[in-house]
Design brief:
Elements lengths: L5 H10 L3 H8 L2 H14 L14 H18 L4 H5 L1 E4 L2 E4 L9 H21 L5 E6 L5 H10 L6 E7 L2 H16 L7 H4 E5 L8 H4 L9 E4 L6 H6 L3 H6 L21 H12 L4 E5 L3 H13 L12 E8 L7 E6 L15 E7 L1 E10 L2 H5 L8
Parallel strand pairs: 3-4, 3-6, 4-5, 6-7, 8-10
Antiparallel strand pairs: 1-2, 7-11, 8-11, 9-10
Length: 382
Amino acid sequence: MPRLPTPLLHRARSISPLLPLLLRTCRDLPSASNELRWLREHVAALPKNTHYSIFSPLRLKVLSTLHKFCLARSRGKPLQYILGSQPFGDVDILCRRGVLIPRPETETYTAHLASLLRSRLPSTRRQGTLRILDLCTGTGCIPLALHALLAPRISALEILGIDISPQALSLSRKNLEYNITNGHLSPKVREQVRFAYGDVLGGQLESSLKGGERGEWDIVISNPPYISPSGFERETERSVRLWEPRLALVPPLPSGDSNSNKGDTFYTALLSLARDVGARILLMEVAGTAQAGRVVDMALSTKDARKRDSDWGGVEVWHDELHTPGESSTERRGLRDGNGKNGSGNGKKDIPVRQVGTGHARAVVCYRGEGGKWLGASGLAV
């Protein structure tokens, strides 16, 4: 990490003696200033137009606590672990060490999915409960945000969050109650959202998925571990490596493939599980364009043993910026045959792949049947 320029440190110190501490992690003055403001608010800084003696016990306690937090931040402790929570859509998510911190990019595609469902699903869906399955749920941010956004329009909901980490499951349940207490969620959420243990790669999900009005799940969502071991060491921020759980970031190495793991371990299992539960939409977070391309290829190649064609009617790649008008494009790609050649012309159908939004590729979204209508992609469905 390059050293901070001396003039920048002098300028920061002239504004506040605490800013140089935050610059060690933030690296630029606007970000450091924002974080200092949030930390001051967190420790209940002196109200405006109120003056205390310089030796006031309250003032000294506030300054001591603020300095302690800035020092922790300078050593790489994530801001969300210091503040204790992170806004995510219409809910506030408690953050604790040992559970992955919700990212803004995850919040963006969660809100985008909810917006599509709110606008299209009530008029196109048949009767029954909308069932949503979130795998690798972590803090529970996706199920809780979806409930907050969908419940006012869709009364019959069932959302299940699955995780392998007992610590994550405990925190997700605390987040449910925390948001009821704070008025972000209605008490009805207790009946419609639950969290359960499950091992996606180990296939230990049957008991968790039982119940409900039918054995199918309409939508499967997952933000799985997808960073390669080398990417974790070379590309992630120091605070991520030191503070956040590797279990939630780096998938286990596939057996016999220790030299070529690219972080893709979970996607085959997710595609298979989505097929088994009859999902109409499968949304999987990815790390960027390269991984998105590999996952799209997996989706196009995933099919039931009784079929020659893909399980899916279409695939979309959602990018970080999803609400920019006129930035979507459509391309068609054929299925690959056993020799890795394009499947067009050999009797297999072409599957539409649509790029949605701009910026980094963030999620691969597969759909079929009603799912295409819910996404507004019915014109592209095959």
